[in-house]
Amino acid sequence: MTHRTAPAPADPGFGAAAPGSLRAEGLGYRLPPPGRGRAGALLLDGVDLEVAPGETVGVVGPNGSGKTTLLRCVYGTLTATSGRLLLDGQDAAGLTAKERARLVAAVPQDATGAFGLTVRETVAMGHSPHKRFWEGDTAEDAAQCRAALERVGAAHLADRRLDELSGGERQRALIARALVQRPRILALDEPTNHLDIRYQLDILHLARTLPPTVLVVLHDLNLAAAYCDRLYVLAAGRVVATGTPAEVLTEELLHDVYGVHTRIGPHPVTGRPNVVYVPE
């Protein structure tokens, strides 16, 4: 099993927790039935997944394969309808919302709820799992926000409104908010979506160097190969392959799962698999 080789400092200044573990056992999610006598669609079907402390693990697969559904079950906006999810060894079904938020922080594709706030105000929202609802922010809280913004290279954006930022700047602010949450696991849903290449590389490099364990959903297979220790491939809600990028990203599998022809060889710089798509 491959682990990150460049971990962040143990105490980066924002109260970071040690990286945690994640385990899904037969995890399933079925939509509510659309009408009497009809079963809801099965979006996840018996998913087994394990992420060790300190790993960056990617989830890939075609549209509709269950990637985002799986991630939402991990960070709690959806509740699995079967199976079991263990967060740092604790059964997620027995955790309160605040207890879960102390273990897992999410950076979803869309974060419209924070729009209208400044970056500083957005990042400070990460303190909420550690406070009672009447407690205000302290000087220490403000210092942790500054440290998180500095860690993601966004300190200069603190007074800007979140909805005025570019996509890459906004992603950095949302990751800073997640860091202030002091999670043991960081769940990222398509963090490179709609970003320029420079920001795609910056965001994924940043994710690998942060303290929490990382579970990330990605569309781009070459980015997944370059930045993930291991991959899980989903199709129709099921895991169809898992392993290192070199073990998983084969021409046969990509043809079976994605229906495309490819040529795969080692990247000339990193040695990781490099996927070239062959036109029909």
From TrEMBL:
InterPro entries: AAA+_ATPase, ABC_transporter-like_ATP-bd, ABC_transporter-like_CS, P-loop_NTPase
Signal peptide: none
Pfam (any one): ABC_tran
Gene Ontology molecular-function annotations: ATP binding; ATP hydrolysis activity
Keywords on record: ATP-binding, Nucleotide-binding, Transport
Domain ABC transporter: 22-261
Keyword Lipid metabolism assigned: no
Name recorded for this polypeptide: ABC transporter ATP-binding protein
